[in-house]
Amino acid sequence: MNTVFQQVDISHYIYLSTVLFSIGLFGVLFRRNAIVLLMCIELMLNSVNLLLTALSTYMGDAGGQLFVFFIMVVAAAEAAVGLAILVMVYRNTRNTTVNFLSNLKG
Amino acid sequence: MNLYILLALPLLGFTINGLFGKQLPKFVVGALASSLVFIPFVLALTLWSEVKEAAIVSQPFTFLQVGDLNIEFKLMLDRLSLIMTLIITGIGTLIHLYSMAYMADDAGYYKFFSYLNLFIFNMLILVLGANFMMLFFGWEGVGLCSYLLIGFWYHNPDFGYAARKAFVMNRIGDLGLLLGLFMIIQHFGSLDYQVVFSEIAKVSHPQWVYTSIAVLLFVGAMGKSAQIPLYTWLPDAMAGPTPVSALIHAATMVTAGVYLVVRSEVLYTLAPMARDLILYVGLATSLLAAFIGLKQNDIKKVLAYSTVSQLGLMFIALGCGAYSAAMFHLATHAFFKALLFLGSGSVIHGMHHEQDIRKMGGLRKAMPLTYVTFLIGTLAISGFPFLSGFFSKDEILLHTFHHSPWVYGLSVFSAGLTGIYMFRMFFLTFHGTYRNDHYAFEKVHESPILMTLPLMVLAALSLSGGLLNLPHYLTHSHSEALAHWLEPLFVFGDAAVHVEPSTEWALLGVAVSVFVIAFVWMRQKYVVQGRVAENDDQMSGSAKLLAHKFYVDELYDSLFAKPLQALGTWTYRVLDRKGFVAFTDLMGKVTHWKGQTLARIQSGNIELYLIIMVLAAALMLGIELFA
Amino acid sequence: MSALPIPFLVLSFITILCALYVVTSKNPVHSVLALIVAFFSISAHYVLLNAQFLAIVNLMVYAGAIMVLFLFVLMLLNLGKAAEPIKSNAWALASAISAGSLLLILTAAFQKSGEQVYRNPSETVGLVKNLGKVLFGEYLIPFELTGALFIGAMVGAVLLGKRDSGDHESSALAEEKGASS
Fold it and tell me: Which residues, 6+ apart, have CB-to-CB distance to B434 below 8 Å?
């Protein structure tokens, strides 16, 4: 039986997720819109999820996939709270760029 | 009975009076302090019969453990420490009672009593400790109390300086004691009396070890017992309240050095060179202090130099190997010197803080009780036949005679000087005419019963103190009771003295005639001729030299204090100001500059933070991987 | 390992392309849509890896719930065309260097770790039946805890999003300010 994952080496999944992770990181560094920033963080989380799933399958260990499941849970909670905060910030400042945080500067 | 109770009671008094004394009424403070010293006295008395030849030892517990060295907190009551305990608590009780009246008007009443109790506590540790560490503990404790009490009236800066001087002088001695203890640890591996002394008695070490340990311990004794060259603090210590002078600087603390040497009898018997040193230092101190005492005009200063001189006499006895004679004199001296100090305190109290004997005179009519008791004290110290001082001093003189004639001659001379300065002071104070223009004679009053009662008790003790150790020419059955009683404690024992009865009677005759000469001469000079000690500006050369205490203080000042001060000034100006301060300033400046520079990075720009964070993470991973 | 299977290559290509678009698009709504596509392709990767359960959950949670939430917020705040302050090229360069160096380091790390062969492949591990057994056996307590986490997150989100009366005044003030400036 020739399933895909038997033809693809694990290293390819590693490279793929590293690239995705770096792209997400670049977005976090480059963008100023806080919502886009959150999206980039989701992208980074997904790249890690992908890697975990791949490793889980290649090692035959269900733990990795369950971790992905938990990460999704945390990501959902994070997105909910993060967006709520953003909405409130927007309400008060009419702005969603991350620079508003420089108000904390001493 | 548990020995710790003896210690716990004065400590309890110190705690209660020190913490709550301010709120308690004065009478309660005084009565509490006195009774917490009196109870240990009674307890010690009940132990009298229990103390057999072996010591009572308390349950030990670990005090310090360093490597193989295990120092225990352990008490030991043998006959020697029992005598010391009785003197400390007995005379301590009397002086506590006396202080209740003497200090009645003082604002620091409660503080005074808490210090006194602390002193008793530390002194008991000193004499009851079963090892050198405990002794050292008490040694430092009494030094602290002495400092606190000398400087009790610290509002007067001179008194504060006197306290500091006592402290520093004692520190020099303590250094010797400490070095001695270190050497004991190094060579005998323990500080416990029993272990150390039995090791020493085996004579398994070279002679120089014994000699140097003995000399170092004696240096400690020098400081505490005010021997040359460290004696100058004791006269200055008279700045403290008079009861303190009586308790600490006459009866108990200053005899700690004698106790130390008697305790280390084995060591000193095996180190004859150190014993000779003690003899000569004691002799020189005794003579020097007696000479200075001749021309002092402060009633307490005379007594202070007399104390130094008598301590010198005790060390002469120790130097001759007459340990029990030294203990005997220690006990009788405690009686009559406490009596004299308390009597002088009564005079000072009655004269409203006048201490100059040139401004006294004729006080016998105003203060009859003080007069009589003071007379007994003076007779006792000068060696009036069959009073306590007569016996104890003669015992020492007998030993010096056996040692060498010229030591005997000088000791007798010193004893004669004792009679001269004591009677000079006594006649100037109590006889003749009243000489103070500023304070009317009618206002001079006898002290209250609380002060005269201790005087009477001490006078009785001074009269009868000789019974402790009667010489064998008076009684055969009970002769030398103290010496026999102490004998089991000593490994080598007192130096043997065998003299012909005729010689002994001749020596007695010499002692009595010296006393008679001093008495008659002084009476002639100050009572019959009615002369008064000269004022400071009328003094001739030798008198001036004596009145200024041989300029020893000035000598020490220019020899040690001035160069040290100059060094201090130099280090302050050059090393400290230009070196360390500049250096620390530089450190501050560098830190400040760094802080300011780094603060610019912390701009509040989150994107910059993020980039730095990512780069730092990459860097750390890189280092982890490729370095 | 001569030729990689076509599905893998195509999916990877789509994923990376969409990810790049998410990051570079000036319009946040476009970003969200591109991200949804990227998530779909990742779900397809999961299918390739025989992790069907995760593929479905990924679709539902990420592409379905979370991204819709993002879209919602964007619409709600009307940020669709809102001008995002554009960063300078220097910023872009710095960000690219940082991210790129991390990428390099990570790949280098993998290269250095050598060819460790993870070969104990199992086709059945990703099935719902197997995962459920592990999840409700070994990971039961963490699973229950996630429920608590969700409750907390929900309460937090509601609290944050709620306007109370005091808040209303201040926000009205802020609106006025925004309007005047």
Answer: B360, B361, B362, B363, B441, B444
What confidence tens digit (pLDDT) does each residue in B28-72 have?
899 999 999 999 999 998 888 888 777 788 888 888 888 888 888
Q: What is the DSSP string of B212-268?
A: HHHHHHHHHHHHHTT-TTSTTHHHHGGGS-HHHHHIIIIISGGGHHHHHHHHTHHHH
Distance in angstroms (rounded) separating the CA atoms of residues C103 and B615: 11
In this complex, do C109 and B614 lie within 8 Å of one another by their Cβ atoms?
A: no
Contact at CB, A102 and B607, closer than 8 angstroms: no
Q: How far does the CA of residue C33 sit from the closest CA of chain A (Å)?
A: 11
Q: Which of B181, B487, B142, B464 is nearest to B335 (CA)?
A: B464
Interface check C98 vs B, CB under 8 A: yes
Under DSSP, is residue B129 helix (H, G, I), strand (E, B) or coil? strand
**What are the structural domain ranges in chain B?**
278-436+443-534, 560-626
Non-local (6+) Cβ contacts of B382 within 8 A are: B389, B418, B419, B422, B423, B515, B518, B519
Segment of B327-336, B431-440, B521-530 carrying the highest mean pLDDT: B327-336
Enumerate helices (H) and strands (E) in chain B, giving the number of each: 26, 4
Please report which helix (H) or strand (E) contains residue C94, including its range: helix C89-112
What CA–CA distance (Å, rounded) separates C10 from B419? 124
Judged by a CB distance cut-off of 8 A, whether residue B23 touches chain A is: no
Pick from A35, A46, A84: which is nearest to C70 by CB?
A: A35
Tell me the chain C residues in contact with residue B627 when contact means C-beta distances shorter than 8 Å: none
Taking CB atoms and an 8 Å limit, are B618 and C108 in contact across chains? Answer: no
- Amino acid, single-letter form, for residue A60: G
Under an 8 A CB cutoff, do C156 and A81 touch? yes
The answer to whether B302 and B425 are in contact (CB under 8 A) is yes
- Substitution target in C36, C70, C143 with the highest count of A β-carbons within 10 Å is C70
Q: In degrees, to the nearest 5, what angle opens at C-alpha B133 toward C-alphas B128 and B137?
A: 70
The token pair that represents C154 in the structure block: 């929900």
Q: Do C94 and B625 touch (CB under 8 A)?
A: no
Task: Number of A to C CB contacts under 8 A, please give it.
Answer: 244
Residue C16 forms part of a structural domain: yes
Give the pLDDT of residue B178: 93
- Residue in chain C closest to B614 (alpha carbons) equals C98
Cα Rg of chain C, angstroms = 22
Q: Name B200's Cβ contacts closer than 8 Å, sequence gap at least 6.
A: B188, B210, B266, B267, B270
Question: What type of residue sits at position B334?
Answer: A
Full domain range(s) for residue C175: 127-181
Asked if the Cβ–Cβ distance from C153 to A58 is below 8 Å, we say no
Residues of C in contact with A23 (CB under 8 A): 16, 19-20, 22-23, 99
Nearest-by-Cβ selection for A102 from B606, B610, B614: B606
pLDDT digits (tens, 9 = 90+) for B144-203: 999 999 999 888 888 989 999 899 889 989 999 999 999 999 888 888 888 888 888 888
Structural domain count of chain C: 2
Residue ranges of chain C whose pLDDT lies below 70: 1-3, 79-87, 114-120, 163-181
Q: Which residues of B touch A105 (CB under 8 A)?
A: 602-604
Residue C25: inside a domain:
yes
Name the residue in chain A with its Cα closest to that of C2.
Answer: A7
d(CA B468, CA B594): 79
Q: Of C81, C105, C137, which closes a domain?
A: C81
Structural domain contains residue C108 = no
Q: Which residue from C minimizes the CA distance to B613?
A: C98
Single out the residue of A7, A65, A61, A4 nearest to residue C44, CA to CA: A4
- Domain CATH for C4: 1.20.120.1200
Nearest to C109 among B611, B614, B625 (CB): B625
